[in-house]
Amino acid sequence: MTARIIDGKAFAAKVREKVAGHVARLKEEHAITPGLAVVLVGEDPASQVYVRSKGKQTVEVGMNSYEHKLDADTSEKDLLALIDKLNNAPEVHGILVQLPLPGHLNEDLVINSIDPAKDVDGFHISNVGLLGTGQKSMVPCTPLGCLMMLRDYHGSLSGMDAVVIGRSNIVGKPMAQLLLGDSCTVTIAHSRTKDIQDVTRRADIVVAAVGRPEMVTGDWIKPGATVIDVGINRIDAPDKGEGQTRLVGDCHFDSCAEVAGAITPVPGGVGPMTIACLLANTVTACCRANGLSEPEGLTA
Ligand SMILES: NC(=O)C1=CN([C@@H]2O[C@H](COP(=O)(O)OP(=O)(O)OC[C@H]3O[C@@H](n4cnc5c(N)ncnc54)[C@H](OP(=O)(O)O)[C@@H]3O)[C@@H](O)[C@H]2O)C=CC1
Ligand SMILES: Nc1nc(=O)c2c([nH]1)NC[C@@H]1CN(c3ccc(C(=O)N[C@@H](CCC(=O)O)C(=O)O)cc3)C=[N+]21
Fold first, then answer.
1. Is the peptide bond before 267 cis (omega within 30 degrees of 0)?
2. What region holds the Tetrahydrofolate dehydrogenase/cyclohydrolase NAD(P)-binding domain (predicted)?
3. Could you give the ipTM of this predicted complex?
4. Where are the domains of the chain?
5. What distance in Å separates the CA atoms of residue 248 and residue 233, rounded to the nearest whole number?
6. Do 30-120 and 141-272 show the same overall fold?
């Protein structure tokens, strides 16, 4: 079998188009421009790339982008003061604090200081609790993007066996909640899972969010299953020349694609959908903040 490739890049472009349509409507009918504030502490080069690309795409869909770059040694007090200012700024509808934060900053404290209504990452404990109890919330962007692609490909996910590899608060756990919400039978695997290949081989859907380059190989996959590769790993690529690197996922693409029914590539899979969902969440947050009906099909 050769898997169908789920084109996250093309899907993300469609989501951004929808978002742009809603932004135009908000501007014309209500004179409101949605605004997204991104806070970056420190100078991690990978984070800088993401922040730049988020800012660019935010502007491309017609929203306002506010970038706040703080020194790596910024105090917790100063960061919390900035978040407080953004919480109270009416032109800011979404706030994202890029993770990971430098070690001296308490991530939980910082995230929980964001107004939950502006928490477009969906990481605030209130949003986590709302998602876990099936109530309306802000849904984390990466799992939301995965869910959109799965729903688009399968239609209904009801009754499917899904295995999520990874139990982080930002990907694995919310992904499992969303799949459960769509009535999958969900298993969460992690570094202590025994005979993990046997677990994944039973799954109709495998979502890999591990952070280990190409760990999941074709023999882990049931023939015809759908593989969603969340991993973003930069590895050395001496074949491309000295000092060159390439991006790979947590799944070994070629061997998985031989067995799977469908698979997302890296790059061009989950990554672009994550940013598109961030923009979607910002529009949703803006509509809710203004008591307007929220766009359909852009949230879970
Ligand atoms: N495409 C996108 O938009 C995004 C991509 N990512 C990427 O997704 C990946 C995961 O990110 P994140 O969730 O933040 O990572 P974390 O490091 O927070 O979590 C990794 C999870 O994988 C588990 N794990 C580690 N090693 C193994 C193993 N050998 N077998 C089984 N499970 C294992 C860990 O288990 P345990 O809990 O037991 O330690 C943990 O639960 C990374 O590659 C990251 O770059 C992340 C965010 C967005
Ligand atoms: N508060 C917070 N929210 C996040 O959502 C968040 C974060 N912190 N910290 C870092 C991770 C990582 N992340 C990615 C987003 C897009 C791509 C993406 O677009 N990737 C492209 C390739 C980009 C490249 O070439 O480097 C692709 O997969 O095709 C990747 C990774 C969001 N994260």
1. yes
2. 140-288
3. 0.98
4. 30-120, 141-272
5. 5
6. yes
Alpha-carbon distance 144 to 276, whole Å? 10
Ligand 2 pocket member 11 (CB < 6 A): no
Predicted confidence at residue 253, as pLDDT, reads 98
> Relative to the CA of 8, which ligand 2 atom is closest?
29
Going by the annotation, the residues of the binding site are: 166-168, 232
The average pLDDT across 33-51 equals: 92
Say which amino acid occupies 40: L
Fold for domain 141-272?
Rossmann fold (3.40.50)
SS (H, E, C) 50-81: HHHHHHHHHHHCCCEEEEEEECCCCCHHHHHH
User: Quick check: CB of 262 below 6 Å from ligand 1?
Assistant: no
CATH domain 30-120 topology: Rossmann fold (3.40.50)
Known catalytic residues are 54, 98, 121
From the CA of 271, how far away is ligand 2's center (Å)?
Answer: 5
Q: Which atom of ligand 2 is nearest to the CA of 46?
A: 26
Which ligand 2 atom is at minimum distance from the Cα of 268? 29
